[in-house]
Amino acid sequence: MNQRIVLSRRPVGWVDESCFRIEPCAEPECGAEDVLLQALYLSTDPYLRGRMNAGPSYAPGFELGRPIVSRVVARVIASRHARFRAGDLVWGFLDWAERCVVPRGEGLHRIDPSLGRASQFLSVLGMPGLTAWVGAIEIGRPAPGDTVYVSSAAGAVGQLAGQFAKRAGARVVGSAGSAHKVDFLLQRCGFAAAFDHRSVDIDEALQTHCPRGIDLYFDNVGGRTLEAALRHANVAARIAVCGMISAYNDTTDAGIRGLQAVLTQRIQLTGFIIYDHVHKLPAYQARVAPWLRSGELVFHEDIVPGFENAPAALIGMMKGEAIGKRLVQVAPE
Amino acid sequence: MNQRIVLSRRPVGWVDESCFRIEPCAEPECGAEDVLLQALYLSTDPYLRGRMNAGPSYAPGFELGRPIVSRVVARVIASRHARFRAGDLVWGFLDWAERCVVPRGEGLHRIDPSLGRASQFLSVLGMPGLTAWVGAIEIGRPAPGDTVYVSSAAGAVGQLAGQFAKRAGARVVGSAGSAHKVDFLLQRCGFAAAFDHRSVDIDEALQTHCPRGIDLYFDNVGGRTLEAALRHANVAARIAVCGMISAYNDTTDAGIRGLQAVLTQRIQLTGFIIYDHVHKLPAYQARVAPWLRSGELVFHEDIVPGFENAPAALIGMMKGEAIGKRLVQVAPE
């Protein structure tokens, strides 16, 4: 029997499992021009938190009683559309269901297996990777010798943002939420320094690890971390605002203090959303795939097996328990 | 007898006249290679507030007991340096004194009277004008049809920022602190709409006057006005942060709420300080002088006569009592 995961309750503050319901649903039939898919991997993403609210975020809100939607890698089981054949690997925005049909295959992107593994099209070869590239390189413009600070640095985007900035000649410093993540950044990702933001004073840590100040801050979290980065920003610093996860579950909106540094240090603070940049994906994939094959670029995926574990996997990702990109594996490749 | 104005006390919160002392000082002598100057106009500027603090701002702090320094237009009374002759008009960063000497004329810029009146080299042909140009045009990049909102719009910078954006085809909306200033924006500066921020709810006013949202916000004030602009910002809006005068006299640092809009609307917030752009001044003056002569560009100066009135003139400017650029006239041209 097919199953799906729906939004059963809108969260207030932190998400918990009562916000989701796993329910049986009809086995989809492959009608004329349909493409029938078996889900392989579900992407868990911080921005999904915003879509669980009723109000508008930068993507439309999920409806109560209707499935969660995210990027999904799937295998074509059957196709009655000329563009797809059984066995093809694809990705697209799909309902969280084990199997589904997509009329005319609309919105599906074919995966080129020569570039990388299927799961990587949700991670290093997909939107998290392109997000890191746009923020760290296009917006951040790191120069050789710059100090680059990345928060949530052991996350799907952060680990790559730091590595891309390092390739551009910058000295990269990361923060993350556990000693294990800090080890990952130092041992695997080649960060020059890293610290556990849960066990240190962030101002002291930035003073220690960024003694010449911050030229680029890749902001995944907002809040008190953004305030600290503003205090340590150099003249002409760039802040690429990729996420403000600290605000997503915050119902108080305390405000960002010290924004005067934007003026005194001539800072450029640029928010970006990867939807505006998806046309750059093929060029990005072509650039990065060789670095993946050669091992120059490290990328960690945290794959949780079992469709029914998707709500817990998403919640845990939001609480910071994953290293790298967290995916839910629905079926074997 | 010569006189000067010194910083007698550092302000906490708002500046008052007890922060200044007018005192007699020696009549300067024109030694070898010196240039002896008679001050004509003193510039009063919001950034001077920051220099009255002990801590670092983007310019070094004034010393207690030492003269206030700002841009000053002066006439050369005597010169023992080859670059200057008696009768020349110059501007530079000078002590607030009726007369002074400048060794080797260092830091003095000669004024070309064919471009405009002497006072205008502290206003429309000087840093306030260039500030408006850099923020409204270079950073703001207004497109035809864009909605541009300018706060402190009747100030030295704001009135020009709005007019420059209008010349680029934008629809310009301004806010200012009195009905008289609003009239000035509508009747003299050609703003499409303007409102008195002291007598309306700013969100309602922005809703009314910027019904299609804000594409460029030229921010002179920060604080609650910046928060409101963030709430009304369109996707891809630019915010040129020129001043945060609301914070200069604020000892609480309440924080800016709603900065998440930077992410959801992909806003670019860019702080700038005109010191970084002074090399553009000659090209700017050459561009703008014809518009001044033809009357296409309106510029209002508020000239307070009398050296001894400089402290009150500065304080009043900070409290918003002037329209346009406030100058203190020390001597007739």
Number of domains of chain A: 2
Oligomer designation:
homodimer
The structural class of chain A is: alpha/beta
CATH architecture of the largest domain in chain A: Alpha-Beta Complex
- CATH top level of the largest domain in chain A is Alpha Beta
The first-to-last residue Cα distance of chain A is: 20 Å
Helix and strand run of chain A: EEEHEEEEHEHEHEHEHEHHEHEHE
Q: Major beta sheet of chain A, specifics?
A: 7 strands, mixed
Strand content of chain A: 25-35%
Q: CATH homologous superfamily name of the largest domain in chain A?
A: Medium-chain alcohol dehydrogenases, catalytic domain
Rounded radius of gyration of chain A (Å): 20 Å
Count of β-strands of chain A: 15
Residue stretches of chain A low in confidence (pLDDT < 50, at least 5 long) are: none
> Which bin fits the share of residues in helices of chain A?
25-40%
The biggest chain-chain interface is:
A-B, 31 and 32 residues
Cα shape of chain A: globular
Distinct helical segment count of chain A? 10
